[in-house]
Write a structure and sequence with these properties.
electron transport; 145 residues; 73% helix; Cytochrome Bc1 Complex, Chain C; Cyt_b/b6_N; mainly alpha
């Protein structure tokens, strides 16, 4: 969370400047490249610990405690959503198309899928509103978790 706060000081959640703001962080901010890589690799280490925790829970039969297990699954999904929206923030080609494809998977939900996707996008396509929402979610969700 601490590295994210430092990165947020220089990041601009706008479709025309997001990519260049990430480049600015890596090139012009003192140790910005280091903070960014700490942020990304810290998230990866967090997931490694999370998967080890899940494995331990499966080994010891913690899934027998339904409520605790269900809360854990909900937390896992929230952490995965946080990581996904963080992946979109640099707004490169991989980020843009990742956001487009992954959010479009929700359109397969009967009756509400298309409406849900348009609500997440903030319109009819992945655009400025989507990036702004994803930045807000990526900033707020870790504090909620």
């Amino acid at each position: 969370i601490l590295t994210g706060l430092f990165l947020a000081m220089h990041y601009t959640p706008d479709t025309s400047t997001a990519f260049s703001s990430v480049a600015h962080i890596c090139r012009d901010v003192n140790y910005g490249w280091f903070i960014r890589y700490l942020h990304a690799n810290g998230a990866s280490m967090f997931f490694i610990c999370l998967y080890a925790h899940i494995g331990r829970g499966l080994y010891y039969g913690s899934y027998m405690f339904q409520e605790t297990w269900n809360i854990g699954v909900l937390l896992l999904l929230t952490v995965m959503a946080t990581a996904f929206v963080g992946y979109v923030l640099p707004w490169g080609q991989m980020s843009f198309w990742g956001a487009t494809v992954i959010t479009n998977l929700l359109s397969a939900i009967p009756y509400i899928g298309t409406t849900l996707v348009e609500w997440i996008w903030g319109g009819f396509s992945v655009d400025k509103a989507t990036l702004t929402r994803f930045f807000a979610f990526h900033f707020i969700l870790p504090f909620i978790i």
